[in-house]
Amino acid sequence: MDVHPDKLDITITFAQSLDGKLAGPDGAQIALSCSESMQITHRLRSTNNAILVGANTAINDNPQLNTRLLPTEEQRNPQPVVLDTNLRLPPGCKLVQNFVAGKGLQPWLLTPGSDDLDWHHRRRVLENAGARIMIYNPNSTSHVDSIPSILSTLSFNGVSSLMVEGGPSVIQSFFTAHNKYGSIIDRIIITVAPMFVGEDGVGYNLPRSDGKPAFIHKDSFLAGKDAIMVLEPTSA
Ligand SMILES: NC(=O)c1ccc[n+]([C@@H]2O[C@H](COP(=O)([O-])OP(=O)(O)OC[C@H]3O[C@@H](n4cnc5c(N)ncnc54)[C@H](OP(=O)(O)O)[C@@H]3O)[C@@H](O)[C@H]2O)c1
């Protein structure tokens, strides 16, 4: 299944160390961004209508995925989306709690579904807690393969601009997923923090380029101690 890139504007954004790591050993959360670059991330969130993270990020970091660092009149929260095949998200997480308290949008958990009875039990618990479970086409054979179905589901449900915030596994999937139009990514915004994590940190790899750059520089600027770089696919 192909998703035409014009249907969904996709921004990949993450913070990395100088040695290209997004997380610590075994995917543990590490503080990379300074307060100035965090504020830019929140502004970027306010300009997209959905924000997507992987299940591990949602579980490890317990993020709110909102725009609370902006002045009240500029806060506009994107639709939170978690890729959670096995419905591992704890029902007591901040995303669900914020929704129940009227402080956030209802979190969408995207999954290909399952025949497993425990999975159906977790579905009921999460739905009763307040999450919305959304099933995408289950015929994909890998995480990368599932990206077009995930994008179609989001597009069908009214999402036109998507910010993908991590973690490394999800970013890797989006880098690798291509359709007949080329890269599905419209831009990458990377916050580079002036620190090293070390080889036991978790990074990402780009697909083979055969000598041609897949993304080219569009802009770069400083935010506090961090450097922010904007890249676009060469075909853009
Ligand atoms: N530096 C940054 O900007 C940044 C940003 C975000 C997170 N992080 C860090 O990254 C760490 C977690 O990273 P991670 O790589 O372990 O996990 P992740 O990318 O947050 O989540 C990966 C999990 O998402 C699920 N998933 C479902 N569909 C997927 C798809 N199409 N592609 C990839 N994954 C899919 C899989 O679990 P199931 O199969 O169970 O669904 C997979 O194991 C966190 O601790 C966080 O601190 C850093």
Automatic annotation (TrEMBL):
MF term (GO), any: 5-amino-6-(5-phosphoribosylamino)uracil reductase activity
Annotated Pfam families: RibD_C
Bacterial bifunctional deaminase-reductase C-terminal domain span: 10-201
TM spans (from-to): none
Enzyme kind, highest EC tier: oxidoreductase
Family matches, as InterPro entries: DHFR-like_dom_sf (IPR024072), RibDG_C (IPR002734), Riboflavin_Biosynth_HTPR (IPR050765)
GO annotation terms (biological process): riboflavin biosynthetic process
Pathway: Cofactor biosynthesis; riboflavin biosynthesis
Keywords: NADP, Oxidoreductase, Riboflavin biosynthesis
SUPFAM superfamilies: Dihydrofolate reductase-like
Catalyzed reaction equations: 2,5-diamino-6-(1-D-ribitylamino)pyrimidin-4(3H)-one 5'-phosphate + NAD(+) = 2,5-diamino-6-(1-D-ribosylamino)pyrimidin-4(3H)-one 5'-phosphate + NADH + H(+); 2,5-diamino-6-(1-D-ribitylamino)pyrimidin-4(3H)-one 5'-phosphate + NADP(+) = 2,5-diamino-6-(1-D-ribosylamino)pyrimidin-4(3H)-one 5'-phosphate + NADPH + H(+)
EC nos: 1.1.1.302
Function: Catalyzes an early step in riboflavin biosynthesis, the NADPH-dependent reduction of the ribose side chain of 2,5-diamino-6-ribosylamino-4(3H)-pyrimidinone 5'-phosphate, yielding 2,5-diamino-6-ribitylamino-4(3H)-pyrimidinone 5'-phosphate.
Family statement: Belongs to the HTP reductase family.
Protein name: 2,5-diamino-6-ribosylamino-4(3H)-pyrimidinone 5'-phosphate reductase
Organism: Coprinopsis marcescibilis
